[in-house]
Specification:
The structure holds two protein chains of two kinds. Chain A is built from four helices and six strands, in the order ααβααβββββ. Chain A is of the alpha+beta class. A four-stranded antiparallel beta sheet of chain A has the order 1-6-2-3. Chain A is elongated. Chain A has helices at 4-12, 17-26, 35-42, 46-58; strands at residues 33-34, 62-69, 75-79, 88-91, 97-100, 106-112. Chain B is mainly alpha-helical. Chain B contains nine helices and two strands, in the order H-H-H-H-H-H-H-E-E-H-H. Chain B has helices spanning 3-18, 22-34, 38-47, 50-54, 56-59, 63-94, 100-120, 140-151, 153-173, and strands at residues 126-131, 134-139. Classes of the chains: A alpha+beta, B mainly alpha. At the A-B interface, helix 3 and helix 4 of A face helix 1, helix 2 and helix 3 of B.
């Protein structure tokens, strides 16, 4: 992405500058990254990565989506905020069966944008 | 974890962080997140952002800043009640036979003190009736104040003293 404001964010958190640089190196606008995939790619621990990603979302470098996935595979629905995620959801991929939403079928998906502020 | 459990976990960690100074929160956030399973960690961590852990209005709130208004009001009311009760007690001790004007002032003070004290006494009091050609209906602290004013403690004492005097007089005559 190499946006100047991302550099500013890195200078605000020198302890995480290497992680921010790493993210800056491979995040490509138009592609989607799950949180787990970002953990794999960066090798960072979840606590630090979630904090940095939160900052990137706040500054609109990333768009964050909470995606509920079907046990049968594929997404069922996307939610803009964690507060909006329902307790149960109708799985249209598996015969409209009502399934509970848990951390097993809930993914955080990040999509880099081109308009960070 | 289910969604309600995830929300509960977010609330639990946020509450823990709220009790800590700002510079200790990030480390504690990491420790608390590391207690969770890998799949829960990312979800809970994505909600407890840097904004949340550095937010002064929720994080810096200690007991005093949260409750100062209530504590100030209660403290003032308690001081007021105790102060006026002591003054009333002193006046009664020094002036056992008050003039009608003194009696009236004492009644007013006792009424206010009773009303204030009523604010702190749990329970429900409701009175309804007629007083001096007026219809009357009051609840709670106001009811207690009205009761004290209407029942007129100085007059009750005077009546009781008069009764005692009359009884003594009658006994003496016998």
């Amino acid at each position: 992405m190499s946006l100047p404001n991302l550099r500013a964010l890195a200078s605000n958190r020198p302890q995480d500058a290497a992680l921010i640089d790493k993210l800056d190196g491979f995040l490509t606008p138009g592609r989607e990254y799950t949180f787990d995939r970002l953990v794999e790619l960066t090798g960072a621990d979840e606590a630090t990565l979630s904090l940095i990603l939160g900052e990137l979302v706040k500054h609109k470098f990333l768009h964050q989506i909470f995606r509920v996935e079907s046990p049968a595979g594929g997404g069922i629905d996307d939610f803009e905020s964690f507060k909006d995620v329902p307790v149960t959801i109708k799985d249209w991929r598996a015969g409209d069966r009502e399934i509970p939403v848990t951390s097993r079928n809930l993914r955080i998906v990040y999509e880099p944008t081109t308009d960070g502020v | 974890m289910t969604v309600p459990e995830l929300h509960e976990e977010v609330r639990r960690i946020t509450d823990i962080l709220a009790e800590l100074p700002v510079n200790a929160r990030e480390q504690r956030r990491r420790e608390e997140l590391n207690k969770l399973s890998r799949e829960d960690r990312g979800l809970v961590g994505s909600v407890i952002t840097l904004d949340v852990i550095t937010r002064p209005q929720t994080m810096q709130e200690n007991f005093w800043t949260k409750n100062w208004e209530k504590l100030f009001t209660y403290g003032f009311a308690v001081l007021f009640i105790v102060g006026f009760l002591l003054i009333t007690l002193a006046v009664v001790l020094f002036f056992p036979d008050p003039t009608p004007a003194q009696e009236f002032v004492l009644r007013i003070i006792l009424t206010i003190v009773a009303g204030l004290a009523g604010l702190f006494i749990p329970g429900f009091l409701h009175i309804e009736g007629k007083w001096a050609n007026f219809g009357l209906r009051a609840s709670g602290a106001v009811a207690l104040a009205v009761l004290v004013y209407i029942k007129n403690p100085p007059a009750l004492i005077r009546e009781s003293n008069a009764d005692k005097a009359a009884a003594t007089e009658a006994r003496d005559k016998r």
